[in-house]
Amino acid sequence: MKITVVTRDERIFTLDVEGDEVVENVKAILEVEAGVPMGAQQLLYNSRELPNSSTLRAAGVREGDLLILHVSTPASAPSPPGNSLSLNPDGSAVDPRALQQHLRSKPDIIGHLYNTNPELAQAVLGDNVDVLQDILRQQHRQKLEIERLKREEIALLNSDPFDIDAQRKIEEAIYQKNVNENWEAALEHNPEAFAKVIMLYVDMEVNNVPIKAFVDSGAQMTIISKNCAERCGLLRLLDKRYVGIAKGVGESVIIGRIHVAHIKIGGKYFMCSFTVLEQSDVEFIFGLDMLRKHQCMIDLKDNVLRVGGGEVAVPFLHEKDLPEHVKEEGHPSIPFQGPSTSAPKQTTGPSPKKSVIPPPVAQPQPSALQAPAVISIGVSTDMDSKIAKLMQLGFDRNASMQALQLFNGNEEQAASYLFGGF
C-alpha cells in the first residue's frame, strides 16, 4: 500500500510498503529517503507516536493515510563527525562506504530499494562509491523539485479563487495530471502502443527479379524506384512523358511511368503499372491502385496479404527478414502517404478555356509543380474525347484522366472504376 509521510519542514515522501511492515523498517527506509537517522525519527499517526515494534496494519494505518515525521534535530543540519551514516545537505553521503555497508546488512531495505528504486539499489551493491554519490545527489535534486511542485500546487489550491493567473495555473495542473494519468493507464492497459510497429512487407518478383515490397494502402500509386526498375530491367519501358513531383510525407521526382509489367506474388503472375521515382527510401511500394485492381485484402489476423480476392495468400515478413535500412529507420518516408495525399493533377496549357493539353515534355515545368502531386503528360485527341465522355457522366476532368491512365485508355473499365465497380 502507499502512504504519505510529511516532515515538519513540509518535505513530502510517498512510500510503497506492505501493511505488515514494522514501523522500525519504515524508519529505516526514511533514513535513506529523507536522510534522517532512525534515532531522531518520531512517526506520528492521528497525533500519536507509532512504536517501532508495531506493524502499520496493527497501528491502524491504511492505504493512502498520512503520517507525520517529527525530527528531533533538523535533517539539513551539518552531520556530527561521528555519524557516518548521515547525508550532506546536497544529498550525498558523509561516508559512502559506511552507508553501503550499513544498507547491505539490511536485507529488508535492499529488497524495498529493488522494488522502488532499483538504480539506487544497484549502486549500493556496486563497488563504485562515486556512482552512489552521483545518484544520491541527483535523486535529492529530484525530490526537492517534486516537493517544490507540490508546495506550489497546495498554494494554488489555497489561492484567491478570483485570481485569473492562479486559475490558469490550476487549469494547467489539472491538464497535466490528466495527461499523466492517461499515460499511466496506457502503460497498464495498452503497453503495445509504445512498441515499435513493424511495417508490412511481402516477397514479390518484378520481371522475375525478387524484391521485398512495402504494402501500403495509404500510398495512392504503386511506386518503384529508379534503381530497382533498372535492376529489374524495366527502364527500357519508361514513358518519360509522365514526369512531375510526388509530395506527401516525403518528396521525390517522378521520372516517368511503366505502363504494364508482370509481378509474381505467391507463385501467381499479375499485371501491374508503376510510377517511377528518381529516389525513394523503399524500392517498391505496392499501393492502393494495384491493391484495388487485384482485389487484395490485408489480413492482420492471419498476418497475410490475400491477392485476387483470396486466391493467393502470402505472409508478411518478420522483422528479421526486412531490409537493413528499414530496421534502422523504421517507417519509410514516401510520397503519396497518409491523408495528405492528393491525386495527380493534369497540367494544362496556356489557354485553359480551350482545354489545350501541352505536348509531351521531358522535364517538369516550374509552374506545373505547385500541387501536392503533379504529373505532366501528353494526351491524344482520342483520349481527350474519352475524358469528355466521362465528364458527361458527372466526373471531374482530373479523376477521369487518372482513371483512363490507370486502364490504358479503356473508357469502360475507367467508368466502372469511377463508379466503384473495382
From TrEMBL:
Any one cellular-component term (Gene Ontology): cytoplasm
UniProt xrefs under SMART domains: UBA, UBQ
A Gene Ontology molecular function term of the record: aspartic-type endopeptidase activity
InterPro entries attached to this UniProt entry: Ddi1/2_HDD (IPR057273), DDI1_N (IPR033882), Peptidase_A2_cat (IPR001995), Peptidase_aspartic_DDI1-type (IPR019103), Peptidase_aspartic_dom_sf (IPR021109), UBA (IPR015940), UBA-like_sf (IPR009060), Ubiquitin-like_dom (IPR000626)
Region (Disordered): 73-93, 327-368
Localization (cell): Cytoplasm
UniProt feature, compositional bias: Low complexity: 73-89
Biased composition (Polar residues): 338-349
Boundaries of every Peptidase A2 domain copy: 211-290
Domain UBA per the UniProt entry, residue ranges: 382-421
Annotated family: Belongs to the DDI1 family.
PANTHER family found in the cross-reference section: ASPARTYL PROTEASE DDI-RELATED, AT13091P
Protein name: DNA damage-inducible protein 1
